[in-house]
């Protein structure tokens, strides 16, 4: 079978992904093998592939493919999340284009439109993942709002309600004015923003407050009036002020005790109250108290029995209670009210001010604190075992630095607001009687039976009188059940799938949803199965551009992943993503990494073409035994390193070890050591033993490469160089090589030989000696390296005539040292002693500095007591080698009379 001159990634990707699907290589069913299970963090049905998905799913695919090649029954479960807020926004926008508003249609009609949208667009991201090479069991694709998963969510709500862990109440919540729904604390992203600090003057009056016809008025005493100044970033909420608060210990304001203030523009009188909550050294020391629009103000208002005046509509516009600027958006009102305050002399000054503001994770709208009737889930009882699992090591967070973050959050956990004011999602199973009481039940029929148990009015009740709660449950209330529900563990807790695949092995996700999702899945696993949902949590970093900015559409700094795949090939992009992605650390992405990945694929391809192009002569003896034995040991050494990195989830490092093995050791050294030469421009044949070993090495390299680069490895795997493959004899299920023997002495000696060749090449370049011109080389061996054993390699790669083993220095030759051994290359030109002295002196200075740093480590008690024995041994060897080399350098300097 001929092989194309260049690797054509698009052809290979289409061919082999279709082949894998056709022959069901991704399919998993329970059997006698050890399972390896990973569930995808379900992307939103509204989503399209972005760089974060690329990184996350590349890592998942590497882990899944590797498990499959280790003989495990690998099951990677895909699926999507119904994403209540984001999807409803998409559907509302779609309806708007049709001239329809949500309020004009019924809930069933809206849901029909939403399902239509989901069926049309909801699977896009999963199809895009296939382009990346994701080896999910697509037959197992789940959706968080499909019937079985919805049943699980409703059953969970009922279960927790019966335990007393779900309750309903009015609380200050995070309100998203764009999504028009409450969101949990974990769905609020804090950002530092530039704002304005407005200093507003309030008139102070004296008198007693009394209530007349529902309004507070003042009986004024004949005292004079003056003003106080309040600093606020939110002048648009002054109409909702219920009081001005000062610290009772603030001497500046003793004269204000018992007085009243008048809200500017609307001339409403409010009390001046005293509370040590107010900081005397912040702002002016006077605080406007707006209980309806600030959590701290709400708590202050509760202590002082202040009225709650909510002047904002659900969409963030001002309502009639504001009295002025009714209907204006809150931010437009902020600008306009500043103009009005200034015009009437109430605005003292405006300053620039930086502060942290909450933004909705889903819509990026500025969060508005709002009092609202919501459903909540108690978290303290569920948090305790979920924290213990991590602290005891039953669940490992990778990297470990996130354990403290996790502990802090779990020890300070708040109740979870689980209701959302939306239609798309699982509707809360609460059913209201006409008198306002409610029952919790899965269906109307079950609710009616529960309602009949209540007294009084329920005696005349009909099933049709019950009204189900309009709200839906938070999307995370479905996805926290994901590792159980994807295996139908709620409907049938003892089915074959859940018993075989659960707990899952690894979870790969982002640190920003450690609490939103990961912690809650651990809680659900304990509550509903009595065990952990997964064993390891690999937390990826945030993908940033080369300037350190988070990639986003708004900044225009996020490339389209499909464009990258088109340009560099899927394997190139996978390698590019992983080269710069240590676990838990942000990665500075640059397209050059993908280019490096593509170049790596081309290197592999060209190396394969080189080997495939050799002519084999069965009559030839094998002259390459040393090279073969060296690469065999080097391969086993690299395999040990790769295994170690994977065991520690150092996937980027595992790839780098693979990269160096292939590019440096195999291509740059081994193939150069054994490739046949030329006579009269014609290539010489290679002996069959060397060829067979090399083909075997290449086959094992393809296996090691496959988890990272599935397409090129599968393409080359099926080349006839390896013989005819059966239908299911594919690289995707080939068994990974196991660690063999490592000849440490051979590896160490070969490293010295490689350094020797490199030095010869450097001298050739510095002296501008043509590559084809053979050189003479004398070796004064002070170590135990058997250079004659490596003579063929040195003469071939260094293009020298042979090795002349000497016992004395060669006068007048260019010399260099590798370890403690001395090498001499005689030159026709006269050696300049001054230049040589300068070179040797620089080398001596470097060695003295190196020796100083080694001694510093060895003299450090902390290092010596904590370092592993092999590390200390390595440092002692460095010291001995440096001292020996320094002695030889000083002898050479003395011989030259430097």
The helix count comes to 27
For the termini, the CA-CA separation is 64 Å
Task: Outline the biggest β-sheet.
Answer: 7 strands, mixed
Specify the helix fraction band. Answer: 40-55%
Low-confidence stretches: 209-225
Could you please describe the fold and organization of this structure?
This protein has 898 residues and is an alpha/beta fold. Helices cover 42% and strands 19% of the residues. It contains 27 helices and 35 strands. Strands 7, 10, 11, 12, 13, 14 and 15 form a seven-stranded mixed β-sheet that branches. The protein has a four-stranded antiparallel β-sheet with strand order 6-5-16-18. A hairpin with a 2-residue loop joins strand 8 and strand 9. Helix 19 (625-647) packs parallel to helix 21 and helix 20 (651-674) runs antiparallel to helix 21 (688-705). The longest helix has 27 residues, at 869-895. The two termini are 64 Å apart.
Keywords:
898 residues, alpha/beta, seven-stranded mixed beta sheet
Topology:
Elements lengths: L8 H14 L12 E5 L11 H19 L3 E5 L1 E2 L3 H14 L9 H15 L2 H9 L9 E2 L3 H16 L3 E11 L4 E3 L4 E18 L1 E6 L2 E6 L5 E7 L10 E4 L13 E4 L4 E7 L11 E4 L5 H9 L26 H14 L3 E14 L7 E10 L2 H12 L4 E3 L3 H10 L4 E2 L1 E2 L9 E3 L5 E3 L3 H8 L15 E2 L3 E2 L2 H4 L2 H4 L10 H6 L2 E6 L4 H16 L4 E6 L3 E2 L16 H8 L1 H10 L7 E2 L2 H22 L3 E2 L7 H23 L3 H24 L3 E2 L2 E2 L2 E2 H18 L4 H8 L26 H23 L8 E6 L10 H8 L1 E6 L8 E5 L2 E5 L7 H26 L2 H6 L2 H27 L3
Helix pairs in contact: 1-22, 3-4, 9-10, 9-15, 16-17, 17-18, 18-20, 19-20, 19-21, 19-23, 20-21, 21-22, 23-24, 25-27
């Amino acid at each position: 079978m001929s092989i194309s001159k260049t690797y054509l990634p698009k052809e290979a990707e289409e061919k082999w992904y279709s082949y894998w699907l056709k022959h069901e290589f991704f399919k998993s069913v329970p059997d006698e093998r050890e399972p390896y299970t990973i569930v995808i963090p379900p992307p939103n049905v509204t989503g399209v592939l972005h760089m974060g998905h690329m990184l996350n799913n590349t890592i998942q695919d590497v882990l899944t493919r590797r498990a499959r090649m280790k003989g495990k029954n690998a099951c990677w479960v895909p699926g999507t999340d119904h994403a209540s807020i984001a999807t409803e926004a998409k559907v509302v926008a779609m309806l708007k284009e049709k001239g329809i508003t949500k309020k004009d249609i019924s809930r069933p009609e809206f849901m029909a439109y939403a399902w239509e949208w989901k069926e049309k667009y909801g699977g896009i991201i999963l199809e895009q993942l296939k382009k990346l090479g994701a080896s999910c069991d697509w037959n197992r694709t789940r959706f968080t709002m499909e019937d079985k998963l919805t049943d699980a969510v409703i059953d969970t709500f009922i279960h927790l309600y019966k335990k007393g862990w779900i309750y309903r109440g009015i609380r200050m919540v995070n309100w998203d004015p764009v999504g028009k729904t409450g969101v949990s604390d974990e769905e609020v992203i804090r950002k530092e923003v530039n704002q304005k600090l407005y200093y507003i003057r309030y008139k102070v009056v004296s008198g007693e407050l009394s209530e007349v016809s529902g309004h507070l008025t003042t009986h004024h005493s004949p005292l004079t009036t003056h003003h106080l100044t309040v600093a606020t970033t939110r002048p648009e909420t002054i109409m909702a002020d219920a009081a001005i608060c000062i610290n009772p210990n603030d001497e500046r304001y003793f004269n204000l005790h018992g007085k009243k203030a008048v809200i500017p523009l609307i001339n409403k009188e409010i009390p001046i109250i005293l509370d040590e909550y107010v900081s005397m050294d912040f702002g002016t020391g006077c605080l406007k108290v707006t209980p309806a629009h600030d959590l701290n103000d709400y708590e202050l208002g509760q202590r002082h029995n202040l009225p709650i005046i909510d002047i904002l509509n659900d969409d963030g516009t001002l309502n009639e209670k504001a009295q002025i600027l009714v209907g204006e958006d809150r931010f437009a009102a902020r600008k306009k009210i500043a103009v009005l305050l200034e015009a009437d002399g109430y605005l003292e000054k405006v300053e620039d001010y930086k502060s942290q503001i909450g933004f909705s994770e889903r819509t990026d709208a500025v969060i508005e604190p709002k009092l609202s009737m919501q459903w909540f889930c108690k978290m303290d009882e569920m948090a305790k075992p979920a924290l213990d699992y991590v602290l005891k090591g039953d669940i490992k967070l990778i990297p470990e630095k996130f354990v403290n973050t996790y502990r802090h959050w779990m020890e300070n956990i708040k109740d979870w607001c689980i209701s959302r004011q939306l239609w798309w999602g699982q509707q809360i199973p609460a059913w209201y009687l006409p008198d306002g009481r409610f029952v919790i039940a899965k269906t109307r029929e079950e609710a009616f039976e529960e309602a009949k148990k209540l007294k009084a009015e329920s005696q005349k009740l009909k099933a049709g009188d019950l009204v189900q709660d309009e709200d839906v449950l938070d999307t995370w209330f479905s996805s926290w059940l994901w590792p159980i529900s994807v295996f139908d563990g709620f409907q049938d807790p003892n089915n074959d799938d859940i018993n075989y695949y659960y707990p899952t092995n690894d979870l790969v996700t982002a640190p920003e949803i450690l609490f939103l999702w990961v912690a809650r899945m651990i809680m659900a696993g304990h509550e509903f199965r009595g065990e952990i949902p997964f064993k390891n949590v690999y937390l990826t970093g945030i993908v940033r551009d080369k300037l350190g900015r988070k990639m986003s559409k708004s900044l225009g700094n996020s490339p389209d992943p499909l464009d990258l795949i088109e340009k560099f090939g899927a394997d190139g992009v996978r390698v590019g993503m992983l080269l710069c992605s240590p676990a838990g650390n942000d990665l500075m992405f640059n397209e050059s990494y993908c280019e490096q990945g593509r170049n790596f694929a081309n290197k592999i391809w060209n190396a394969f073409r080189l080997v495939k192009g050799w002519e084999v002569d069965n009559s030839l003896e094998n002259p390459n035994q040393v090279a073969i034995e060296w690469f065999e040991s080097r391969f086993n050494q690299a395999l040990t390193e790769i295994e170690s990195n994977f065991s520690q989830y150092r996937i980027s490092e595992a790839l780098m070890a693979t990269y160096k093995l292939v590019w440096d050791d195999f291509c740059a050294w081994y193939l150069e050591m054994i490739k046949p030469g030329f006579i009269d421009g014609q290539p010489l044949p290679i002996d069959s033993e060397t060829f067979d070993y090399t083909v075997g090495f290449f086959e094992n390299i393809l296996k090691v490469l496959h988890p990272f680069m599935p397409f090129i490895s599968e393409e080359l795997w099926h080349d006839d160089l390896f013989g005819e493959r059966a239908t299911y004899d594919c690289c995707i299920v080939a068994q990974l090589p196991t660690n063999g023997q490592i000849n440490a002495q051979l590896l160490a000696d070969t490293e010295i030989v490689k350094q020797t060749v490199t030095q010869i090449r450097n001298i050739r370049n510095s002296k501008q000696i043509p590559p084809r011109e053979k050189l003479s080389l004398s070796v004064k061996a002070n170590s135990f390296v058997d250079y004659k054993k490596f003579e063929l390699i040195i003469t071939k790669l260094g293009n020298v005539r042979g090795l002349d083993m000497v016992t004395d220095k060669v006068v007048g030759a260019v010399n260099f040292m590798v370890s403690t051994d001395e090498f001499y290359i005689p030159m026709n030109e006269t050696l300049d002693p001054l230049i040589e002295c300068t070179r040797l002196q620089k080398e001596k200075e470097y060695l003295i500095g190196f020796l100083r740093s080694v001694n510093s480590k060895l003299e450090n008690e902390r290092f010596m007591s904590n370092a592993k024995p092999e590390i200390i041994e390595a440092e002692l060897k460095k010291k001995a080698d440096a001292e020996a080399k320094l002695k030889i350098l000083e002898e050479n300097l003395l011989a030259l009379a430097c």
